[in-house]
Amino acid sequence: MPIVKGGPYGAPGPFPTDGVVVRSDAEARRAVEAARRERRPLPVLGLLGGDLHRTLGGTPPPGSAGGEDRLRSDGGVTFAVDLGEVLVDGRLHLFVAHLVARSRLWTRAFVAMNAQWLGPWNLGPRAHPGDGLLDTYDVHLRVSQLLAVRARLHHGAHLPHPGIKEQRTGAIQIDLDGPLGVRVDGEAVGRGRRLAVRVEADALTVVV
After folding, report:
1. Residue 131 CB: number of other CB atoms within 10 A?
2. Residue of 191, 190, 194, 187 lying closest to 172 (CA atoms)
3. In the Cβ-directed half-sphere of 148, how many Cα atoms lie within 13 Å?
4. What is the C-alpha separation between 207 and 142, in angstroms, rounded?
5. How many whole angstroms from its chain centre is CA 77?
């Protein structure tokens, strides 16, 4: 169930033997999409890296073997997290951390955050992967505004901004006014101009 403000999130629990270990958001997405294509239950994911991992308090492990040992020990923490879905001009893609459609300079963009981080940027400072909502940002910036916004992204201080329309929502449709490059969980999936985005609450179980 979605989180309650001020309530606990995550519970101690070891990683199951049939879980799938992933080291990036892209690996997590591929594991989820494979299960959906094959009509299998979504696997429990053991996160060793990526922006969702960082959002949930994970730190980079000293090595892949050490990280897996920690996941399977009593030190692992289990979370129920939301899953994002996007139709890009009718083509369905899933995402665990974020969706980004943007122009080369970011003057026009649309972003949906399930995680707080996009690489080094604290792009979704209020985003929470277990609240049943996506934090979305419809961006129209002038070139002259870019440097000031980017200087604040590392600290999540770029909001509010008159050129960035923020909305926390379970579903949204957006017309990008022209085709933009689209990336889900850091991987390019083509170009599109019409996006239909929704969240599936508590769809995934992950261990960090």
Report:
1. 21
2. 194
3. 10
4. 41
5. 19
Alpha carbons within 13 angstroms on the beta-carbon side of residue 119 total: 6
Buried b or exposed e, range 34-53, using 16+ CB within 10 angstroms: eeeeeeeebbbbbbbbbbbb
pTM: 0.91
Task: Please tell me what DSSP assigns to residue 208.
Answer: -
| pLDDT (0 to 100) of residue 1 | 45
User: What is the distance between the alpha carbons of residues 34 and 39, in angstroms, rounded to a whole number?
Assistant: 8
Identify the CA nearest to 136 among candidates 174, 80, 187, 162: 174
Series of mean pLDDT values for 10-residue runs along the chain (208 residues): 60 89 97 97 96 90 62 86 96 98 96 97 96 97 90 85 94 95 98 97 96
Instruction: Label the pairing between strands 108-113 and 20-22.
Output: unpaired
Q: What is the DSSP string of the chain?
A: ----TTS---EE-PPPTT-EEESSHHHHHHHHHHHHHTTPPPPPEEESSSHHHHHTT----SSHHHHHHHHTSTT-EEEEEEEEEEEETTEEEEESSEEEEE-TTSSEEEEEESSS-BTTB---TT--TTSS-EEEEEEE--GGGHHHHHHHHTTT---SBTTEEEEEESEEEEEEEEEEEEEETTEEEEEEEEEEEEEEEEEEEEE-
